[in-house]
Amino acid sequence: MTSVNDSSRHQLEITLRFLFAFIKHPLQRITVLPDWGWSHLTLVLIGTSLVSGALNGIVSLSFYQFAYGLFVLPMTCLITDFVLTSFMYYYFQVFERRVVSFRKLWTLVIFAGIPFFLFQAIASLIPPITLIGLAFSGFLLAVGLSENFKLEKKRALRLIALLYLMVFSVWLWDKIRFSSHDRRMSLPADVN
Question: Which of 21, 73, 105, 147 could bridge to 31 as Cys pair (CB 3.0-4.6 Å)?
Fold first, then answer.
């Protein structure tokens, strides 16, 4: 039992050391990804999304946001990262005509997403800051695709720009939709 605890503690120390180094020097660290197993990578994703979501709930002083950050956000991030990794995996097969490691792509997507989680923690105060975090994550993803998978830099930037434009469009549509919904709900009953 002690060796399992020591091993888990050692793995946690390695993970935290890498995460802190990554936050300090993301451009350097995204070029050399760790070779961690599936469960380790999944726990890193769940942990970072959970901490980010919980901090967002604390900053917004909202129990709902806090609970969302603890329970819904990690699952949403798992699904979103899986879809993005799958998209890029098949992008390489169809457009680059080569097969790359799905796990290495998954690793890249997880670590490139860290700036998003950092900015997401305060998104309740300044909602557009999510897009800034997403832009940083997109840039890291482009650098990681170029450095780790030898994708031409222009192609990597175009691919990420297209994905960012799609996400931005959905975000903007969502803000407009909820803004008009909020205005309708705030109108007096006789106007509705």
Answer: 147
Structural Rg of the chain based on CA atoms: 19
**At a CB cut-off of 8 Å and minimum separation 6, what does 62 contact?**
124
Nearest CA to 57 among 67, 49, 48, 72? 67
Q: What percent of the chain has pLDDT over 70?
A: 91
Least confident range of 4-8, 24-28, 69-73, 102-106: 4-8
The pair of three-digit structure tokens given for residue 146, joined into one six-digit string: 């170029």
Contacts of 169 (CB under 8 A, 6+ apart): none
Mean pLDDT of 92-111: 97
CA angle 29, 109, 97 (to 5 degrees): 105
The confidence score (pLDDT) of residue 1 equals: 53
- 192 pLDDT tier (thresholds 50, 70, 90): very low
Asked if residues 133 and 127 have their Cβ atoms less than 8 Å apart, the reply is no
Report the distance separating Cα 73 and Cα 65, nearest Å: 10
